[in-house]
Amino acid sequence: MNHYTIRNAFLLLLLGVMLTQCQKHEYYEVPATDHPGQLLVKPDGLPTGGSYTLINSKGETVGQITPGVAIDLEEGDYKVISVIPAANVEVAGTTVSLPTTASGEVDMAPDFQSSVLYVHIERDEVTMSSPDLQNMTRELVIKPAISGLPNNEIANMKLTLYGVANTANVEKGFGGQVWGASATRNANALFTTSVIDEFGSDSNFRLRLLGLDSSAKTSVGAQIVLKNGKTLELPPINVSWDSFNMGNPLDPAHYQLGMKIDAVTGTVTATIIPWKPGYEEELEGN
Questions:
Q1: β-pairing, 167-169 with 95-97?
Q2: What are the tens digits of pLDDT across the range 24-59?
């Protein structure tokens, strides 16, 4: 075998090795993928315990988002509904609601904030955004003032507020709600309750609300349990608190519930006036 033959054989062997390597590369090669856009909700300054729900342009819930973790999304428009903290608040689309019993009793609203992020996702781009949180509840403080009955004879007192709302639209924020006429009579109005277990001269009822339902009559009733076991009832009295929903959610609305007990009949009558801590005289507005 001459040197030309050896060289040709070597070249053929080298070519075979190269072809074999090319075949292996093609076999293991990962096919090109379609890279969508990404969304990243910035975690900076966000409290813990929040819920972040992603909704597509059809109003369908896509899933939950974790701040600080980017997720792949198809190109399009989305909303991120933030509720912080989310405990005891149900989220469905842009509507938040509070647990409500079959009898119409609404759980006290937690002090929570919400936000709606409107985002547009572009292909191959990372969209970063931060929630702009707003308060969704306002506190109603009612100070009981009882005459005709010593405070030390009272074991506990329960207050019932009729005409409360149990849902709200986070896109409208506090005070921007429009409720349907689902409850037009006190007997059917949703209500919430608060109890003072150890009654004293400085006792206050503090009720946190999504708002008062403008389609229902607002009224306040009370039940007083005496230490001797006797119970006194204050039938619901109508109140006009239309301005409650228009107030600053950061500023509580204060009222004084003045109750007069007839020692002979046990009848309870009452009036409600605006009140400010530290002042006993009637105030205008709330």
A1: antiparallel
A2: 323 233 344 455 889 999 988 888 889 999 999 999
CATH topology of domain 138-274: Immunoglobulin-like (2.60.40)
pTM for this prediction:
0.79
SS3 of 74, please?
coil
Residues 6+ away with beta carbon under 8 Å from 21: none
Q: Is 155 left (phi over 0), alpha (psi -120 to 50) or beta?
A: alpha
CATH number of 37-94+109-135: 2.60.40.2100
CA distance 180 to 271: 29
Q: Are 143 and 196 in contact (CB under 8 A)?
A: no
Contact, 224 vs 154, CB < 8 A? yes
The sheet carrying 219-226 orders its strands as 191-196, 154-162, 219-226, 231-238
Q: Could you report the per-residue pLDDT of 143-190, keeping only the tens digit for each?
A: 999 999 898 999 999 999 999 999 999 999 998 876 654 444 344 689
Domain with CATH 2.60.40.2100 in the chain: 37-94+109-135
